Amino acid sequence: MHILISNDDGVFAEGINVLAEALSEIAMVTVVAPDRNRSGASNSLTLEYPLRMRQVGERRYAVQGTPTDSVHIALNELVKEDVDFVIAGINHGANLGDDVLYSGTVAAATEGFFLGAPAIAVSLCGSTHFATAAEVVKKVVLGDKTQPLPRNRILNINVPDCTWDELQGWQVTRLGARHRAEGMIREKDPRGQDILWIGPPGATQDAGPGTDFYAIENKCVSLTPLQVDLTAHDTLDALSQWVSVTTNN
Questions:
Q1: How far apart are alpha carbons 69 and 71 in whole angstroms?
Q2: Claim: this prediction has a pTM higher than 0.85
Q3: Which residue, 101, 97, 85, is CA-closest to 142?
Q4: Composition of the chain by helix, strand, coil, percent to 5
Q5: How many H-runs (helices) and E-runs (strands) does the chain carry?
Q6: Is the pLDDT of residue 249 over 70?
Q7: Which pick of 39, 105, 165, 195 has the fewest CB atoms within 10 Å?
Q8: Closest residue by Cα to residue 113 from 234, 6, 220
Q9: 226-238 pLDDT, tens digit each
């Protein structure tokens, strides 16, 4: 089995290295990831500048670009063998609810999915127990060998920041939602010019039973299938009717 690992926290981040070490026990692992933290990069591709890549270890490469760039380079240029999984993570922090729209971790998995590989994004909802999240991913990958996962979706996994023994179970969930993000933080730079920081995310709004927020709050692993078709299929008929009425007048 051959697994490609990427992330958005950078190739030297603790989470990606814990994951690579754990999965190397069951598969050949190739790591291709940004050379620095690119959190929040979403699905951006670098189009106006050339991409630079350097080898930083055995089957490990740092890309001067985004998470999407990294997976794109890996699958189109660098990796010659077939890839059984593209796994993005372990992210330093949760990717719950609305987070997935901004997440470079989910974006790396999405690029793998676009390029034909089964894709998983995994995040630790904290910064301590990366080994727990790595063990979760191992179980998912090994479970796929006996009972294959659906191949038409991306699997977004969030893991509570606790020991393996403290986990209270696994839940298949939907994305929850947050309130509107808090306001910008305005400061001055050393030259007295205004600078703005993106404020913290909003508090949870839709976090009841069945959501990814609820699973994590109750120390359960959250598994959310994601689709990339953003079409609002339930609105097609209503919009067609609107077009018919509006454009014929």
A1: 6
A2: yes
A3: 85
A4: 30, 25, 40
A5: 6, 13
A6: no
A7: 165
A8: 6
A9: 999 999 999 999 9
